[in-house]
Automatic annotation (TrEMBL):
Spans traversing the lipid bilayer: 276-298, 318-336, 343-362, 368-387, 399-422
Keywords recorded for this protein, A-Z: Membrane, Transmembrane, Transmembrane helix
Entry's Gene Ontology BP terms: spore germination
InterPro entries reported for this sequence: Spore_Ger, UPF0353/GerABKA_families
Coiled-coil spans in chain: none
This protein's name: Spore gernimation protein GerA
Any GO CC annotation of this UniProt entry: membrane
Top-level lineage group: Bacteria
Family: Belongs to the GerABKA family.
Record Pfam families: GerA
Length: 482
């Protein structure tokens, strides 16, 4: 609704009081300066009163005859003739200044800045690399990214999602590296979200993902600006939201969740070893308890005779069958994990260590489970912690339960059937129209999936990006003499 021609102070005050009559922190101040009547509207909990005093009131008192645009020295300055825009400006922490008789409102940005300082990453600690992490302020996060990417090719587009929360969302990408079709599709999906409020990044993940019921994460979440920059350089898109210290990276493949920033800070041989270790730990997390049940209950002849004798002796006085052993210990591991996360840090560490030792010792001495399943469960838990992505680690831990049940019913055939169905599911998945489980067997793709080849061999961007500019390195070792 537009502001009518030559309205009065009473008209403006009546309009805002009608909307904010129940708000205790909504304030309006009437000022008479140089014969002109002004009215200030603001939320005292959202504005910096010192800025209002220094950059709005004092200049108006000193130069009351000049126009507001010439007097007020604030960069965040706007004018509007719509009441709705003024209401939104008030909710974002701006002061609305109205001069009696004018048909426009002045929106002055003097919002109060309250945010925590930039700290070290908490959930993605690495041995080398930058020690900066995103915070809850979106403008600060964009500032961190712009300091890392000093290029005109770096594009930031902002959107507002949520009917009630009006959450600010930023889409960031490198124009020359990102695929235009992917950026357009992402913007279409974000624009189609119609929801009251957005709790990011979880809400955004579920609202734009393609496979709604898949356990596997389809968007990569990180709190590290340097990691976000590395994916931007590969042609990915980064999504940041106000109120969240994490950003979303897309589109990504299955192999992206097995990569760590540490891989690129050490020798390529060491990085390759760590990456292969993570792949092995993924299979251990999913299949080791199931393999224990299949071998001990169905196919003990596959093991060496000495190992079979040891296994049978440990199971001789155990009360429960192997499948119940494995399920009970895996549930106990999940309980300890959740207790360690939810409690305070010192108490959580104590419960994790003492609880594991006490429970493991007591259940074995009581002949409820065998020594072997305690070792299997401990190895499974340790292997899940090796995976650098919390979302992927949680997914593979849950997948170990159906694998365990199929092994308990059909032995090794059930375990093989489970992995076959898992591969089929991964091959059917897509993210933003791109294959999720891109086979890493071509010469180009395997350089940065199963292995981490030397940096000077990574001449091309990943093929799933489908960028018009796939060249990443040009003559990287030109210093070397022929």
């Amino acid at each position: 609704m537009r502001v009518k021609q030559n309205p009065t102070i009473e008209t403006a005050e009546a309009y805002f009081n009608q909307i904010f009559s129940e708000q205790s922190d909504f304030q309006s101040k009437e000022l008479l300066m140089g014969g002109a009547l002004f009215k200030l509207f603001y939320f005292e909990s959202l504005v910096d009163l010192n800025l209002v005093q220094d950059f709005i009131l004092k200049p108006l008192l000193l130069r009351p005859q000049d126009g507001i645009r010439q007097v007020v020295s604030i960069l965040d300055y706007a004018e509007t003739d719509h009441w709705e825009e003024a209401v939104q400006a008030l909710l974002y922490g701006k002061v609305v200044l109205y001069q009696n008789g004018e048909s426009k409102l002045y929106l002055l940005g003097v919002d109060l800045k309250k945010e925590r300082s930039i700290n070290i990453p908490i959930n993605e600690r690495v041995l080398r690399g930058a020690n900066e992490a995103f915070i809850e302020n979106l403008d600060t996060n964009i500032n961190l990214m712009r300091k890392l990417i000093n290029s005109t090719e770096f594009v930031v587009k902002t959107y507002t999602i949520g009917r009630l929360s009006r959450t600010k969302v930023a889409v960031m990408y490198i124009k020359s590296a990102a695929t235009t079709a992917i950026v357009t599709e992402l913007e279409r999906r974000l624009a189609s979200i119609d929801i009251d409020y957005v709790e990011a990044p979880g809400f955004v993940d579920e609202l734009i993902r393609e496979k709604k019921f898949s356990l596997f994460p389809q968007l990569l979440i990180t709190e590290r600006p340097d990691r976000a920059r590395s994916y931007l350089m590969e042609g990915k898109v980064v999504i940041g939201t106000a109120g969240s210290p994490d950003v979303i990276i897309m589109p990504v493949t299955f192999w992206s969740f097995l990569q760590s920033p540490d891989d690129y800070q050490v020798s390529w041989l060491i990085g390759t070893f760590f990456r292969l270790l993570r792949i092995c730990c993924l299979f251990v997390t999913i299949g080791l308890p199931a393999l224990y049940v299949a071998v001990s209950a169905f196919n003990p002849q596959l093991l060496p005779i000495n190992f079979v004798n040891t296994l049978q002796s440990s199971l001789k006085y155990v009360t429960f069958p192997p499948v119940l052993e494995a399920l009970s210990m895996m549930f106990m591991l999940e309980i300890l994990r959740e207790a360690t996360i939810r409690l305070a840090s010192p108490v959580g560490q104590t419960i994790g260590v003492v609880g594991g030792i006490v429970i493991g010792t007591v259940v074995v001495q009581a002949n409820l489970v065998s020594n072997t399943i305690v070792i299997v469960t401990a190895l499974t838990g340790l292997a899940s912690f090796v995976l650098p992505s919390y979302e992927m680690s949680s997914a593979v831990r849950l997948l170990s339960y159906p694998a365990l049940l199929l092994s308990a019913l059909f032995g090794l055939f059930g375990l093989a059937f489970f992995f076959m169905m898992l591969c089929i599911h991964l091959c059917q998945m897509t993210t933003m129209g791109l294959p999720y489980f891109t086979p890493p067997f071509s010469l180009t793709d395997t350089k940065d999936t199963l292995f981490r080849v030397p940096i000077w061999r990574l001449l091309k961007r990943p093929i799933e990006t489908i960028s018009s500019n796939r060249t990443r390195l040009r003559n990287p070792r030109s210093w070397k003499r022929p």
